Amino acid sequence: MKFIVTGGSGFIGSHISRYLVKQNHEVIVIDDLRRGNLKNLQDIQDKINFQKINILNFEEMQKIAKNIDGIFHQAGLGSVPQSFKEPEEYHNVNAIGTENILKLAKQINCKVVYASSSSVYGNQTKFPISEDAKKNPLNPYGESKLQAEKFAQQYAQDGVKVIGLRYFNVFGIGQNPNYAGVIPKFIERLLDHKPPVIEGDGTQVRNFTYIDDVVRANWMAFASSVNHAFLNIATGITTSVNDLAKIMITLSGQKLEPEYVDSRPGDIKKSQADTSLAKKLIGWEPEFSLEEGLKEIFPKNW
Length: 302
What we know:
It is a single chain. With 302 residues, the protein is an alpha/beta fold. It has one domain (2-172, 209-235, 273-287): Rossmann fold, CATH 3.40.50.720. It is built from ten helices and 13 strands.
């Protein structure tokens, strides 16, 4: 089969591209390299068709979208702090860019599986969070992802097959600490034999989800008979940032105590997913615990 992976040189996109190549599929990677890095594709660069295209450039995407079986749309901007500085840019890339992908899928008649986010939920009072919970994003990033979902709903009503995966705190090899979550930032500090820096009091709770589980969710969503849905992709198991720091310090073999700084604006206090719908609709459930995933990515030599 032949697939387009947008944002294919980024963290999640490169892992999906690699998975598809290993399954002997033909892969066209679309990426403008604003956030992505070709180093993420080094091991498969001779097995993919890389196109440096911005997803806001619809005409350029049209030119290369021939005989496509499906699109894995992972391109986007993902930094919550940066979204406060560039709200319009986040709307353009994450919302309008997604609409472009949906428009393309309608033209060429193929299914889209795309990266939504747990950020659409904001702070909730009922846990675990199910997909029908009220949406209350706390930052422009979350708002842009919610707007993308509204576009997905519109195009689904018009016959486009589209599944949005609401990722919860994805981690794994290849994350950029500058734009990613807490785990790569902690690893970067520990590699320098420095204590992890925790924003806020560390009691904020997260669902850390390993990249291999996310890749599998993307494929299972595409391969399923489901035409339209939004699905939580997470372990469903909560870990506080304080506990995460303790686990990672222990894995590093160092004796350190975390440092604390002010919490950042737009930060969610608690995040815990109900993943039963993903299991019901596409047969997906997580295989990696937080500790198992961390052991996969932790440097072997400190």
